[in-house]
Design goal:
Strand order of the largest sheet: 1-2-3
Largest sheet: 3 strands, antiparallel
Shape: globular
Strand content: 5-15%
Number of helices: 8
Radius of gyration: 29 Å
Length: about 270
């Protein structure tokens, strides 16, 4: 008979679990099953039913795997359960823990996706890619405003706000570099794209220098203001010249496509 599905891909010839799996008649696997099941015969002819659920595998010894032809029955599973009970409850606890991990991983992934959606939502609501990027420019400048309102006696607040600014601009730059600037080059605007990408290197330099300086250093705030003046010039060049020119070059469908690409990149770092 053909090889049965295996938990970790195609079994190697000397793979005991893989060979054991081939000895068991699994029957047909229904695509609408909530889990993906694998009956496995162990070295002493015991059979357990291994399932995958939310990326976590666990062994269930009480399920009738059916299929006939030497497949385990509820009686055989019961004997295995009795033997497990004789050695303690660790196997049952392990299964419970695995199921808990599966549920936790699922909930954690959902929560992370929701958080990313909330972070990206203001950009999405702004509309097309160029308007979204302009909205992110304004959001970054608002963080600059908050930092500039701090005094040398608020180093903790400055550190927190600088971290927030770094994340906002980092995500923004990632979107531009991986979608907008790349599209620019395909539109014969490579020189402009390379110029903007080059300037992003100096954004990193400013963040590095501000991060190295003590937040209560009298020179720290003037350095931040220098950074703001520099990045505002970069933003104006994008908003007043390069982005409008690029938007006019693209047709409506291409602009919509670029908007989707940009938000997809943004969600990666949101």
């Amino acid at each position: 008979m053909a090889d049965a599905p295996h938990l970790y891909g195609t079994p190697e010839p000397d793979d005991k679990q893989g060979n054991a799996t081939r000895e068991v008649d699994t029957g047909d696997h229904r695509v609408d099953d909530p889990g993906y099941g694998h009956p496995v015969k162990t070295g002493d002819d015991r059979v357990v039913f291994v399932e995958e659920s939310s990326g976590v595998a666990f062994a269930e010894a009480t399920r009738d795997i059916g299929g006939g032809g030497g497949a385990a029955t509820e009686v055989e599973a019961g004997a295995l359960r009795d033997r497990t009970d004789a050695t303690g409850r660790s196997a049952g606890l392990g299964r419970d823990v695995a199921i808990g991990i599966a549920a936790g991983v699922g909930a954690g992934l959902l929560a992370n996706l929701l958080r990313k959606a909330v972070v990206q939502a203001p950009s999405v609501l702004a509309g097309s890619w160029d308007r979204a990027l302009a909205a992110e420019h304004r959001a970054a400048l608002a963080i600059f405003d908050q930092i500039e309102a701090t005094g040398d006696d608020q180093p903790g607040t400055r550190t927190t706000l600088l971290t927030t600014l770094k994340h906002a601009i980092g995500k923004h730059a990632f979107q531009e570099e991986n979608s907008v600037y790349a599209m620019m080059r395909d539109l014969q605007m490579a020189e402009a794209a390379d110029h903007l990408n080059h300037e992003h290197g100096y954004v990193k330099q400013y963040f590095f220098d501000l991060g190295e300086m003590p937040r209560n250093d009298p020179a720290w705030l003037p350095k931040l203001k220098e950074f703001r003046a520099w990045i505002e010039k970069h933003m104006r060049e994008e908003e007043d010249d390069l982005f409008p020119r690029m938007r006019r070059t693209l047709d409506e469908a291409q602009n919509r496509h670029l908007t989707r690409l940009m938000h997809r990149e943004g969600l990666k770092l949101a």
